[in-house]
Amino acid sequence: MHSETITPADTAWQDRALCAQTGADFFFPEPGSSVREAKRICGMCEMRPACLEYALANDERFGVWGGLSEKERLALRKVTP
């Protein structure tokens, strides 16, 4: 199996992501709900790095992207210039 480079601008990764096969409910929970299941699914997904890059590049404010919650991505943006 060869390794391919996936860029955040290329959204083909979204079709191969586990969340596309699972449904959005886990990844966009009601406020105050647990994101544990979404993070578990993200942890098994090969597309997680591309997903996180996409979320950061597009300033996604809601949901779990790349295994990180909104608050975790916000904290990451504050640390990374």
UniProtKB/TrEMBL annotation:
Q: Which InterPro entries did the record assign?
A: 4FE4S_WBL, Whib
A single GO CC term for this protein reads:
cytoplasm
Q: Could you provide one GO biological process annotation from this protein's UniProt record?
A: negative regulation of DNA-templated transcription
Q: Which GO terms describe its molecular function?
A: 4 iron, 4 sulfur cluster binding; dinitrosyl-iron complex binding; DNA binding; metal ion binding; protein-disulfide reductase [NAD(P)H] activity
Q: How is the cofactor bound?
A: Binds 1 [4Fe-4S] cluster per subunit. Following nitrosylation of the [4Fe-4S] cluster binds 1 [4Fe-8(NO)] cluster per subunit.
Binding residues for [4Fe-4S] cluster: 19, 42, 45, 51
Which residue ranges does the record assign to the 4Fe-4S Wbl-type domain? 18-75
The record's subcellular locations are: Cytoplasm
Task: Enumerate the cofactors the protein uses.
Answer: [4Fe-4S] cluster
Designated name of the protein: Transcriptional regulator WhiB
Q: Give the organism the record lists.
A: Streptomyces naganishii JCM 4654
